[in-house]
Amino acid sequence: MMKIRLELGRTAEYPNGNENHAYEFVAPIDAEGRIDADAWKKERENCVVRHFQNGNLIKAGHLSRVGRSWRFDYDRRTHGDDEPFYKLDQHTMRPGLYVSIMEHDGIQRPFKITSVVPAGVNPTDHRP
């Protein structure tokens, strides 16, 4: 199980990105650096996500899967609050690479993978 940190990439509003608009989530990663769907089935309760804005925790939930699509799910009773990834099943989880998330406001944004470390390890002490 690995903890992955995503920070907002370059956007019109943030041309240098924004490290305070971030997600941290836990997921099983295979040898190629992709999320391991079979291992996720066994570990889904441990695949948690925390969403930060302005450095503050604003919500927490789980990494979930619908078909081949991955998403952050904050309320399992509804899909209205889900934040889906764009083709996460095809992405490698390595620092420096990017993924896209459709956030709760309906806007798809780029997020830079800034760290991939064993779950339980905080790569920097000053971040949430």
Helices and strands, in N-to-C order?
EEHEEEEEE
Task: Work out the helicity level.
Answer: under 10%
Q: Give the domain tally.
A: 1
| Average pLDDT metric | 89
Rg is 14 Å
How does the major sheet shape up? 8 strands, antiparallel
**Strand percentage:** 35-45%
**How many β strands by DSSP?**
8
Strand order within the widest beta sheet: 6-5-4-3-2-1-8-7
- Low-pLDDT stretches are none
**What coarse outline follows from CA principal-axis ratios?**
globular
Count the helices. How many? 1
Would you give an account of this structure?
The chain has one helix at residues 37-43; strands at residues 2-8, 18-27, 48-53, 56-66, 69-73, 83-84, 98-102, 108-118. The two termini are 19 Å apart. An 8-stranded antiparallel beta sheet has the order 6-5-4-3-2-1-8-7. The model has no long low-confidence stretch (mean pLDDT 89). It has one domain (2-118). The protein contains 1 helix and 8 strands, in the order ββαββββββ. 24% of the residues are buried. The radius of gyration is 14 Å and the shape is globular. The chain is mainly beta and 128 residues long.
